[in-house]
Amino acid sequence: MAVRVLHVISARAGDGVEHQLRLLIRHLPQQCEVVTLSPPGPVLAAMRAGGTTVHEMVSSRDLDPASIRALRRLARRGGFDVVHTHLFRASVQGRLAAWLAGVARVVATDYRLDDGRRTALGTRLVYRGLVTIAVSTAIADRLRRRGVPAERLAVIPKALDTEEFRFDPGLRAAARARLGIAPDAAVIGGLGRLEPRKRFDVLIRAVSEVPGAVLLLVGDGSARRALERLAAIEGVADRVLFAGSVEHAREMLCAMDVFASPGRETFGLAVLEAVAAGLPALYAACEPLDDTPVEGARRLTAHDPESLPRGLRAEVLCHAERPGRLPPRSAGPRYDASEVAATVGELYDRVSGSG
Fold this sequence. Notes:
Blueprint: E1 4-9, H1 16-27, E2 31-36, H2 42-49, E3 53-56, H3 65-77, E4 82-86, H4 88-101, E5 106-110, H5 120-127, E6 131-134, H6 137-145, E7 153-155, H7 169-179, E8 187-191, H8 200-207, E9 214-218, H9 224-233, E10 240-244, H10 250-255, E11 258-261, H11 269-276, E12 281-283, E13 297-299, H12 307-321, H13 337-352
Parallel strand pairs: 1-2, 1-4, 2-3, 4-5, 5-6, 6-7, 8-9, 8-11, 9-10, 11-12, 12-13
Helix pairs in contact: 1-13, 3-4, 4-5, 8-12
């Protein structure tokens, strides 16, 4: 009999965790249903349209008794073998609901180095008795320091389907036309939530030192207004475009010529997406590339404020001389969605006793 898995997620619409769940479920052999504790974004809506059962139990608090009771009823009624939680609020509520429903096998994926809300007590509540998937070694190290036993930790990275980011000149032309970007303009791109930890302010200042280049920022978040004001202060408001959140990054990556990721507290998935789209990339942190360098992806020099503007100027010049797009590259099969799903599926089988 197939293992049944209930996924509980609390991601905001447009959060990359939605895409991680989409890729995981697409490749898993187990029977899966999803509960979202946040209003579903377009990714979850598309999953539902594609046949995945998605339950909405919107909750704005980490500890919400009504939501926990509803989750308990669903877990018990659905006969699920494993509850898999994604993000902190989902882990708090999913852990308690699973315990109340008598589902002993709980898996939690930790995607963030820190979200500012966790305490040592909260960590013990969420992770005690769980198998926890850390998407990076840095997250695994942090969890060990907070008392999570090593035997209950598994490092399984974020995933991507490189074919989803394949360059398409038609998409490039369409995106640039819609955004009002000239076909021959040099476009520097950034991708991710517009939050202070992503350091897009550093990228805006750097673009002010790259004459004629357009900066395309894709994503939304609490720092957007501050970044818009900074662009005006730096005198580049007419060269910085805020595209907002998009359902999938492929079209925006096709519109770019150079990719930059100045954030230091990140796994670096956006960098992998950019190189899969044939872009040269400058980055401050990308764990998958630490041991597997790829052509055209270069790490910025730490503590050198000129590293980013200097690198951008060089890449813009190279773009002008390059006859075409770089070939798609990857950091290896470990990050392929099918490989990641196979590893997670084996974990389900092991914790449920069916493997």
